[in-house]
Write a structure and sequence with these properties.
The structure holds 2 protein chains of 2 kinds. In chain A, 34% of the residues lie in helices and 24% in strands. Chain A is an alpha/beta fold. In chain A, the strands form 2 sheets. In chain A, strands 6-7-8-3-9-10-12-11 form an 8-stranded mixed β-sheet, with helices on both faces. A 4-stranded antiparallel β-sheet of chain A has the order 2-1-4-5. In chain A, helix 5 packs across helix 6 and helix 6 (175-187) runs parallel beside helix 7 (205-222). The two termini of chain B are 34 Å apart. By secondary structure, chain B is an alpha/beta fold. Chain B contains 12 helices and 12 strands. The chains are: A alpha/beta, B alpha/beta. The A-B interface holds A 67-68, 174, 176-177, 204-210, 212-213, 216, 231, 233-235, 237-238, 261, 271-273, 275-281, 283, 293-295, 297-298 and B 45-46, 159-162, 189-195, 197-198, 216-224, 243, 246-247, 256-265, 268-275, 277-278.
Chain lengths: 344, 330
């Protein structure tokens, strides 16, 4: 392809992306009650996800980054209705799934799958790989035994393992191979949308690269839409089209990835980015990077600071941050930030 | 840097004798030195033998593992010849160690103060009240807010970053000359990781320790280490000053590791993954242990394991590509 053709294709792709929203999350909240006293009455709420809104377009990868306790995994589970939202709507393909009953929800589950972090814990050790990959088909479809086996065999090859591996058991595989099995299991139903919750953080770097490459290839082949949850900013940058940064249950910043990494606006994003140790091969000095050192720990989500939840660690906090919660506003095209520095 | 190394490890071999007559050569003929005030990074993936190297230095190897060969000299004392009792004195006093998971390293039923003062009283012969004063001082040194209160709290009341600070406080409490940190920040979030690594660097300066930093993160290596040793299959495959190693990478494995990292500055469509997985320590391939995964593999790689040779000053590599001198990888 020439460059002109390439740019046309990219433009068309961009347009398609803006047209088709696959997942639309609006004002979603997930509060967990905190029980206390001898009567086990609710004495407060842990606001794991607190008023989060965003959209994911067809064929896109939205990355979600945040430290432990930021609510990113809870958000993923709420979106799949593995947890029920406290408030808000989740539109999947223009259907609000946030209030669906269990039975109604089942119909949508085959379109939405999840890959978990720990491939040792997420695969039943007593089932063979073949059984593991066939299980979703058994639950969700009315395919015959031989059809299921056929599909499992195709799937295992797609994820880079051999057909003969179907007879083996999870303990016979390494971490990277197990994660391939988890991916095969998630994709065998041909879902539209896959949530990947820290899928490579338990793997060694050389294996991590293999799995990330596989996930990109499968996305291209099968036209998948990903929500990619991770704490590793360079991994998220590699795989995502857009990235959202979460802090204490809220979105601090969301933008196309290039924009977010080249021009971070929120002090938290800046702090996160400058905390990553980078490989620097230049002789002598450090690479020129804006250093924003964050002090302190993430506050407890059960007792978050008033106003802006980041203010206790923010080097630029001022009076308004104590009293008023900043809203997510669009500063540049597609670049949203929730910080008083950017509201007049 | 003085010329007398703090620690000198020579031809160390730690093997694990498994069932069915299998032998896992977890550490297989490793030699290196660490000089005062130096930070040396030991890099490798899981199963490469980096943690076993550290545990061998501390002599914390349990059955079925055994140190079968080598010498470990610490300031002219041969550690492997010491009695168990004398070695206990060395541990904590001269060599301290920090582990990956501070929650499992701390005892959950004792307060922080209890655990720090226990060390001080044992190793430094301080009285109870002296030890407590010293403990509070140590907590302040490692940047723990409300040190007077934290000392009476239990490990579960603290965050992961705070717990790791406690571990550092305990490690430096007896002024060790060598600190071994085994993946000290792997369990922590990035913003906390930066804090802890900076603290360790600061403590290293302040107390003039040498630091053996075990990590899988080449970014951490780049920012904090003076010298790097890359381990694969229980052996050192490349060793050089940090900048040199990262810029003028010789070994295909080191190159593969660097290529498989997603880079924040550069945009690549596909990562350069290393095919396959680390072979288990009881079943290394014959010849070069990286030969099954190496993109440059030649006939002789499957026949003989290359020796570690000094290609340029201070730059060692174990690879047949450089048998006749040889150039940079490309």
């Amino acid at each position: 392809m020439t460059n002109v053709e390439k740019s046309i294709v990219e433009e068309v792709k961009k347009e398609e992306i803006t047209k088709d929203v696959l997942v639309d999350v609006q004002n979603v909240k997930k509060y967990f009650p905190i029980k206390g006293g001898i009567l086990k009455r609710t004495v407060g709420h842990l606001k794991a996800v607190d008023d989060v809104s965003f959209q994911i377009h067809k064929g896109e990868t939205l990355g979600i980054v945040g430290e432990s306790g930021s609510g990113k995994s809870t958000l993923g589970r709420v979106m799949l209705r593995l947890l029920d939202p406290t408030d808000g709507t989740i539109n999947f393909n223009d259907v609000d799934i946030s209030q669906l009953k269990k039975k109604e929800m089942n119909e949508y589950r085959k379109d939405m799958q999840i890959v978990f972090q720990d491939p040792f814990a997420s695969l039943n050790s007593k089932m063979s790989v073949g059984e593991l990959i066939e299980e979703p088909l058994l639950v969700q479809t009315s395919l015959s035994r031989s059809e299921r086996q056929q599909k499992a065999a195709e799937m295992i090859e797609k994820v880079g393992l051999r057909r003969s591996d179907l007879q083996k058991y999870p303990h016979e595989f390494s971490g990277g191979q197990r994660q391939r099995i988890s991916i095969a299991r998630a994709l065998v139903l041909e879902p539209k949308f896959v949530i990947c919750d820290e899928p490579v953080s338990a793997l060694d770097v050389s294996i991590q690269a293999q799995v990330l490459n596989l996930m990109k290839d499968l996305q291209d082949d099968l036209g998948l839409t990903y929500l990619f949850i991770a704490h590793d900013l360079s991994v998220v940058k590699h795989i995502s089209d857009r990235v959202a940064v979460m802090y204490l249950g809220r979105i601090a910043e969301i933008a196309p990835k290039k924009e977010l990494y080249n021009n971070p606006l929120h002090p938290y994003t800046k702090g996160l980015l400058s905390s990553i140790p980078v490989i620097d091969t230049e002789e002598g000095g450090e690479k020129q990077r804006e250093r924003v050192k964050l002090t302190g720990d993430l506050p407890s989500p059960a007792n978050p600071p008033s106003g802006c939840t980041f203010r206790t660690r923010c080097p630029l906090a001022h009076d308004r941050c104590i009293t008023e919660r900043p809203e997510l506003v669009e500063k540049e095209d597609g670049h949203f930030v929730a910080c008083h520095l950017y509201t007049s | 840097m003085s010329n007398q190394p703090v620690l000198n490890v020579d031809s160390l071999k730690t093997y694990f004798y498994l069932d069915q007559d299998q032998v896992a050569k977890a550490v297989d003929d490793i030699s290196f030195s660490i000089y005062p005030g130096e930070t040396v990074a030991l890099v490798g993936e899981s199963g490469s033998g980096k943690s076993i190297t550290a545990l061998s230095i501390m002599q914390l190897i349990n059955k079925p593992g055994r140190i079968i060969n080598g010498t470990i000299l610490m300031n002219d004392t041969e550690l492997l010849k010491l009695s168990a009792k004398k070695m206990t004195k060395i541990r904590g006093n001269d060599i301290a160690m920090i582990f990956q998971e501070p929650m499992t390293a701390l005892n959950p039923v004792y307060t922080i103060g209890n655990q720090i003062t226990e060390m001080l009283r044992k190793h430094k012969n301080l009285s109870k009240s002296e030890a407590r004063i010293k403990a509070v001082e140590l907590l302040k040194t490692v940047g723990i807010p409300r040190a007077e209160e934290v000392i009476d709290e239990y490990p579960h009341q603290l965050s992961g970053g705070m717990r790791q600070r406690i571990m550092i406080a305990m490690a430096i409490s007896c002024d060790p000359t060598l600190l071994i940190a085994d993946e000290p920040t792997t369990a922590l979030d990035v913003t906390i990781q930066a804090q802890i690594l900076d603290l360790m660097a600061e403590m290293k300066e302040k107390f003039q320790m040498a630091l053996l930093l075990i990590t899988h993160d080449l970014g951490v290596v780049s920012e904090y280490a003076d010298r790097v040793m890359v381990m694969y299959g229980g052996q050192i495959v490349e060793q050089a000053p940090t900048k040199k190693l990262l810029r003028d990478t010789k070994h295909p494995y080191t190159k593969g590791l660097l290529d498989s990292l997603p880079n924040l500055d550069e945009e690549v469509d596909r990562l350069g993954a290393i095919k396959g997985a680390v072979p288990p320590a009881h079943d290394f391939p014959s010849g070069c242990r990286f030969s099954t995964r190496c993109p440059f593999v030649m006939d002789k790689c499957t026949q003989s394991n290359p020796e570690l040779q000094e290609l340029e000053k201070d730059h060692f590599v174990r690879c047949h590509l450089y048998d006749n001198g040889g150039d940079t990888l490309d």
